[in-house]
Sequence to fold (609 residues):
Amino acid sequence: MSEAIGGKGATELALPPLRPGKQQRRLDVIAIVATFGGFLFGYDTGVINGALTPMQKDLGFGSVGEGFVTATLLVGAAIGAIVGGRLIDGWGRKKTIQLNAFIFLVGTFGCVFAPNLDVLLVARFILGLAVGAASQAVPIYLSEMAPQERRGSLGGRNELAIVIGQMLAFIINAIIGATFHGDNVWRYMLVVCAIPAFALFFGMLRMPESPRWLMSKGREDDALAVMMEVRTEDRARAEMAEVRRLAEEEAESKTGGWSDLGTPWIRRLVIVGACLGIAQQFSGVNALMYYGTQLLKDAGFSDSAAPIANIANGVTAVIGGALCLFWAVDKFSRKGLILFGVIATTISQGLITLAAFTIPDGNTFKAWLILFLCDMMLFFIQLTLNVPVWVCLSEMFPLRIRGFATGLCIFVLWSADCILVFSFPIVVGAWGIKMMFLILFVIGLAIIWFVRNFLPNTSGRSLEVLEEHFAAGDFLINDRATPAVGHGH
Amino acid sequence: MSVMVVVPDSEEGAYALEAGVVEAEARSTSLIVVNLTLGEIDLAGVPEGLVEKVVSRRGKDDRDPVDTVLNALNANPDADRLVICVARRSPVGKFLLGSISQQLVLRAEVPVLCVKRPVS
Fold:
C-alpha cells in the first residue's frame, strides 16, 4: 500500500516528451515485475480466505486460533512496515524488494509444512514482515522509476495488483477446494503463493536500483546510468535535476519527529490522519477479504458453495478498485468521496445487520441477500475508501513532518486492522455475524461523524496552501465558508 | 559576538524572538535565529540588518530540535548567549515529549537567558 500515489508535490518541469522505444518497453517490464510485490501482497493476505476452514480441521483449533492465524500476519506487517522503511533508505529499494521476495518464500514454505499451530503462527508472522515491508518498498520503487507523466497510474497499479492478487487467491482456492479433498488441502492452497514470490525474486535480479535512492547516496553517475536505461538520452539528462530535487525533498520530509507533536496544530493533523487509518480499517474491508468464505457459510451457503460465492467478493473488489483509479479518484473532492464512502459503507452494514436479524436461518434468499449486500459494501469501500485514503494521507501533512507522520499513521492503520481481524472470528463465533455487523454499523456512525467534522479536504490545493491553513488553525478549509466579499456588482 | 534565539512553533516562539531582539540590541550584536518550526518564520517585526542568519531544521539529523540548537551553537562559536522562552508544562506532556528548554539549559555551553510568557 502506498503513500506515494497521486501525490501532488511535483511541480511540472519542462522536459522533453516521452517517446516510445526500447527504454519505454524496459520501463513497462520494470513496472510489471515490481507490481508482483503488490500481487504477492494480495495473494498472501487473501489466500487465508478459504484455506482457514480446512486448516482449522486439520490442525484442530477454534475461533481464537482462527483470529491468531490471521492477525499474526498483520502484527508482522506493522513491524515489517517500520523495519522496511529503514531498509529502503539504508540498503536501497532493489535489495529490500529482493529480501522481501526471499522472506515471502521462507514464510510460505513455513506455512505449507507447518506441523502444528505454533509453527504456523511463527511462519505467518514472518510472512507478515514481508507483507509490511513490501507495502512500503514497492510503491516507492515504482513511483521513483516512473516519469512524472506516468507516476500516478504506476502507483495506482500497485493497489490494483493487490486486489487482483486477492481475487486470484479466491478463485484458485475455490478450484483447489473443488478438486482436492481431505484436510490437507489448505497446504496446496498456500504453496501457490511461492510462484509469484519466485517471479518477484528472479525478476528483481535484473531490475536497476532506483535513481532517486542512488542520488540520495551521492552516486550521481550510477543514477544517470539507470536513467539512460529507462529514458531516451536527452530526457534522462533533463530529468536528473528533478531526481536531485526529489531526493532533497525526500530528505527534508524526514525532519520532524515525536517532539513536533508538542505543537498543537501538528498533533491535531497527526491524530486526524491516524483516525482516518482506523476508519479505513474499521470499514471492515479486510474482515471480508480474510473471512469471506466463513462469513458466507454463516449466512447460509453450503461448505462447497461458499468458496465459489466468495469469488464474487474478489471480483467486486477489483471492479470497485479499477473504477476508483480510472474515474473516481480525480473526479471528486477527496473529502467528498471519503464521506460518501463511509456513509454508503455504514448503510450497507446496517442492511446486513437488518437482514441477519430479521430473516430466519436456513433460507437461501438470506444467503444470497447477504452476499449481495457484502458485495455492495466492498464495492463502495474499494471505490471510495482504499486509494482515496492513501492519497489523502500522502497529502495532508506538511513536508518536513511527512515521513514521520505517514509512518505513524500506517502503523496505527495496521494495528487497527490487526485488532478487527483478531476479534472478528471470536465475535462471529460467539454471537454470529449479525452482532459483528451491528458493531461495525455503530462504529461506522462514529466514523461518519469524525470524517464530516474533522477531515480536511486536501484535493485541489497546493501543499503550501494547505500548510498555511493548518498552521493558522483552520483545519476544515470549508469551501462554503469562504466569505463572498467584493462580489457586489 | 552574537545572540542566538530559539523560536519554536508556539506562542513562546514569538516571545523568545522579541526577547532575542532586545538582548541583541542591548549588547549591540547581531542575532542568529534558530527556527524550530517545520515551516518558515515571519521575521517582519525584527529590525532590518539585525539578523545575521536563520538556522532551520532540515533532514533526519534535525529530528531532535535540541540537537539542532546544540549543533548551531557548535557551528557558530561567536554566539555567546542563548535566548529561549520557557513555559509551564503538564507532567504528562513532559513525560511524553520531554522538555526542550530543560535540555538546552542543562546542555548549552553558553549562558542561557530564559524569559517567561507574560501571565494574561
About this structure: Residues 1-11, 479-489 of chain A have pLDDT under 50 and may be disordered. Residues 258-477 of chain A form a domain with the Growth Hormone; Chain: A; fold (CATH 1.20.1250.20).
